[in-house]
Amino acid sequence: MRKGTIDVKTENIFPIIKKFLYSDHEIFLRELVSNAVDATQKLKIIASLGKYKEELGDLTIQIVLDKKAGTLSVIDKGIGMTADEIEKYIAQIAFSSAEDFVKKYKGKSEQETKALIGHFGLGFYSSFMVADKVEILTKTYKKGGPTKSIKWECDGSPEYTIDETDKKERGTEVVLHFADDSKEFLEEYRILELLKKYSRFLPVPIQFGTEKTYEKVEGEKDENGNDKQIEVEKPRIINNTNPAWRRKPAELKDEDYKNFYRELYPMTFDEPLFQIHLNVDYPFNLTGILYFPKVKNYLEVRKDKIQLYSNQVFITDSVEGIVPDFLTLLHGVLDSPDIPLNVSRSFLQSDANVKKISSHIMKKVADKLEELFKKDKEGFEKKWEDIQIFIEYGMISEEKFYERAEKFALFKNTDGKFFTFKDYKKHIKDNQTNKDKKLVYLYTTNADEQHSYIQNARDKGYDVLAFEGPLHNHFINALEQKFENAQFTRVDADVIDKLIAKEDEQPSKLSEKEQERLKEIIEKNVNKEKFIVVFESLSETELPVIITQPEFMRRMRDMSKLGGGDMSYFGNMPETYNLVINTNHQMIGQILETKTEKKQTRLIKQLTDLALLSQNLLKGEELTTFIKRSVEIIK
After folding, report:
1. pLDDT digits (tens, 9 = 90+) for 126-163
2. What does the buried/exposed string (b/e) look like for 614-631 if buried means 16 or more CB atoms within 10 Å of the residue's CB?
3. 182 and 85: one domain?
């Protein structure tokens, strides 16, 4: 028997592991299974180079849970280790077995060995987050020399023992004896959950327990004349060793991509709109498939739908900072050995390779969208409501994406017609340029609630855009900064003639004295904190009273609700509206002519409530009072 001390230069490695290297204890299983896969892959390469001439046999990695003994074993049939190799790779933390392996075989199969830079070293020591004792039983693939089976044992202190054992098969078995505070990992469902999370696409079969299934009995029928089936128990294989993203795009059909989407998200019933298959080997290695899901409601969006892998080992489903923020709304898989494991997200965000990968993904997404737009504009328009949020979010947050997207980003007007930015500018240029030479983009955020304002604009020959997405305020702000001599104004921000500000103001039928007197009467009957009374000399055919809300204040308030920048000031301000009085309407004149104060009050309240009703602002008790008053007026 040998005894030794783990080669730690400064202090015990185990507190460092628990505090700095791993934030989540469940990572131990990912690391151990990854090590087993590395050892198996190494054996395959050695065999392919003619360095190992025996039969490889079944290379399935087995995970064995023994609840009674309180242990979990991870068993591989890979290259195994000698006693000296255990000393080197397990005890001497400064070395990495995979790095040493690559150096040894460099030049013979570099492309393959490059992918094997594993983590047998620090990764192995994650075991001590959950175990109070760890054993390694191992037998090397090598023949001749000191090749006996070896047992290494450590109780979580820097001391360990190495002894001979009677292991017959080539490979390594790591046995964890769970600590009292980690008994949750003795439950089968918990281990199955972790294996499905971290190991379901590893390139070597992983077996955990058994599962029941039904098999057809050839040539036999049941009592109903159907093929007879019997229940059988089979080894439960956790993983798909050749997932779609590892295959060449030319090998895959649309149905293959859809099937893989269902495999990734078994509880999602909607099919994706389309996908982007990434396959890059220079200047970095990146594979993956990104899906555009159907999303019409921002509240449905979840930012944990892209799974990040490194050599088919799951890292995280929180990719914010690793890919551009707007792409976190997509679904799918990214896999790159150039993204390091077991480091903080802040490190990833500053890593040069990660930045290059992020830029490349954004470019590929823009390429795909532009291709779809050019290839089938009508089909692109049909998908617009589902992809609008991705494109607008990207244009707001990424300058480079904006430059690409302005070619295929669309405006939709209230007639349901689509325009590129360039085409829409031509469409409204002659009719919606105001006296200050600014192009006025009229828009609605709710066509039903703002119908009367939209209709009024259309009656005057103006076009109105439909901005009903959750990001419309942020998007409009971004466009105003990009477009030259342009302003975006909601159709109910002011009376329509004021919005376009082209027509000469009509003379008012009321004198200034009459307007002052009328203002006093109206202000007695409305909430002065909520409404600012404004007089406008409009056409006699316009409504007598119109409710408007200044564009700037309303937009800032809406943005404060969604978030973005320091908007809390606007969100806390009381909501105010302009109560626009059309001095040329016959009924406004009647208010001054009415003899009794009671009739004046009733007329003012009725006209004001009608204006509020048109903006969906009349609710509760005020709505009930309005209905009763309306019935009385009809009587």
Report:
1. 888 899 999 999 999 998 767 789 999 988 777 889 99
2. bbebbeeeeeeebeeeee
3. yes
